[in-house]
Amino acid sequence: MKSRKELTSDEHLSIALLNQSNVIVHFVDNGEIADYGGLIELINDDAVKINGMYYTKRACRFYLR
Predict the structure, then answer these.
(1) Which tens digits make up the pLDDT trace of 30-63?
(2) Element (H or E) spanning 13, and its range?
(3) pLDDT value at 1 more than 60
(4) Across the beta sheet with 47-50, what order do the strands follow?
(5) Is 50 contained in some domain?
(6) Residue 56 domain boundaries
(7) What is the pLDDT of residue 3?
(8) Most C-beta atoms within 10 A of its C-beta, which of 17, 41, 56, 65?
(9) Across-strand partners of 15?
C-alpha cells in the first residue's frame, strides 16, 4: 500500500483546507477508517469537520488521500 502523508499539525490541516486537499480520517485507537475522503470544511481547537461530520483531533488521525 502506498504511504500517505499524515497531517500532524494545525498548520498541515490549514494547508490542506486552503489547497482543498482530499483527506482520509482514521481512528487512533483501532486504526479503522472513519471517513474515506473529503474536503476539510472547518478546523477548530478540538476537531476537524469533513463531509459534515466532526472528528476530534484527540481520537483521529488525518492523512492526505
Answers:
(1) 999 999 999 999 999 999 999 999 999 999 999 9
(2) helix 10-18
(3) no
(4) 6-7, 60-64, 22-27, 33-43, 47-50, 53-56
(5) yes
(6) 6-64
(7) 74
(8) 17
(9) none
